[in-house]
Amino acid sequence: MVQDMAVKEERLIAEIHGGDIYRSKSVVTDFSVNVNPLGAPPEVTVAVRAAAGEICRYPDMHCGRLTEAVGEFERVPAEYIICGNGAAELIFAAVLAVKPKKALVLSPTFSEYERALRAVGAKVNYYELNETENFRVTEDFLDAVTPKTDMVFLCNPNNPTGQSIPKGLVEWVAETCSRQGSFLVIDECFVDFLEDPEKAQMKDRLDDFPGMLIVKALTKLFAMPGLRLGYGMCSDRKFLGRMRDTLQSWNVSVPAQAGGVAALENCGAYLAETKRVIRREREYLAGQLKELGYKVYGSEANYIFFRDFRAKERDLFAMALSAGFLLRDCSSYRGLCRGYYRIAVRMREENERMVAWLRQL
């Protein structure tokens, strides 16, 4: 189902994200933010410390070494890449480059798409994900893309549901957008946590769809959200130029560029261990939650999306906070209500402590 409404005329959902440990002093374990539980590779910390000695210099505004490292990692031409101060900055830059009058986003999904669209006064259509279909994107999404749709956002796998969209369907969406003249932005920040990323990612189709931007970040995969580093991939260099025109000069700091290069070089063993740990701990957490009576949806990436059917009786978020755990209360997502939560997949000892606490309720 698609809802059509002007952003400025509706109740605005508060901009809430995970990881707000600064106003949650009692937190012992943060399950609200979906970063790699292994932590940043040691090479990143070493590189950032070394780069501290270079902060007297301006950063490379073209991000030369970083762009080359991203190109080698993704196996795409370096000229297709744009770097930014996190994926969120690039989402805003893409919207400013298009200046859409009308856009299409999922509901629920990452709130920064709507926030960026709101900044340019866009009218937004919401493709409502259906709980009876486990919040999956289905083929009727294609019908929501019309000649009046200037811009389309997809998050794959989606945040917060963790549901991936099969590559075949994403290709149909890209073809439909191309035919209708709609610019497509695909957020693949969590795609590398999937069991088989190639069944979802679209980087091999960049040349076929110049009106498509893929956004990714080192934030989640390499556990470095504090450095703020993201990148986009698009084969239309003129469009990338328009994006760059919206960005501040020197938007990626010296430490961030150094940390990004260090993360991407020789990361094979780190990523293999990441995949092994995420697979094991995701299965453990999802299985335990189901056993305790929670409804688990999707959850194909490095986080678990679930529902507490006792939400009318209790506030699981507040209870967890009192016990030292920070969850992501998903009631702030458009299309969700009280009782929906997202937790990150963390290491076994942390996951066991969370499960042990839940068993006591």
Structure, described:
This protein is an alpha/beta fold and 361 residues long. It folds into 2 domains: 13-39 and 268-360, Aspartate Aminotransferase, domain 1 (Alpha-Beta Complex); 42-264, Type I PLP-dependent aspartate aminotransferase-like (Major domain) (Aspartate Aminotransferase, domain 2), CATH 3.40.640.10. Helices cover 35% and strands 17% of the residues. The protein has 12 helices and 14 strands. Strands 1-5-4-6-7-8-9-3 form an 8-stranded mixed sheet, with helices on both faces. It has a 4-stranded antiparallel sheet with strand order 10-11-14-13, covered by helices on one side. Helix 1 (42-51) runs antiparallel to helix 9 (254-264) and helix 2 (64-74) packs parallel to helix 9 (254-264). Residues 4-15 have low confidence and may be disordered.
